[in-house]
Give the backbone structure.
Amino acid sequence: MAQASNHPRLPMIPWGDVRRRPEDRGSNSVMEIHCPLCGQVLKVPSRAINTRCTHCHKHLYLENIVIADLSGRTRINTCGDVVIEANGRFSGELQANSVHVSGRMIGSMVATQRVTITRTGKFAGVIATRELQIAPDAIFQGEAFVLHEDESVTHVQGDPIGA
Ligand SMILES: [Zn+2]
């Protein structure tokens, strides 16, 4: 792993200010989230599935998404978590809190917290996240940028795309 000083996608997100969204959405209480686009705190009802950032005014989706088969979407942008199941297929751009890949994905993803690629997972493209877990049997083609608490970036080189 070599250190990389910057990455074009990372500076857009004030990662140090981004915090994990509370998981409990069963109550009617208000939760605090950090806008992944501007980093500011906003209060939203726990059951909300979308909102508008009161600071940067961008529309934010809060839903958790499970991709069980071939997804027709080419762009997913949520403050929730995304799971690509073993038979799931997604190609395009994905931004989420965390992404769990057990199926196949081609494209680019930004996960403000964590990316996991399991032993059945295959990913080709570019990843930017804060915590990256790749199972030994997983297929990882492309590259990843892992941003640490001290704002240093670890560059993780995968296999060549298409190999
Ligand atoms: Zn915002």
In short: The pocket of zinc ion is lined by residues 35, 37-38, 40, 53, 55-56, 58 (CB under 6 Å).
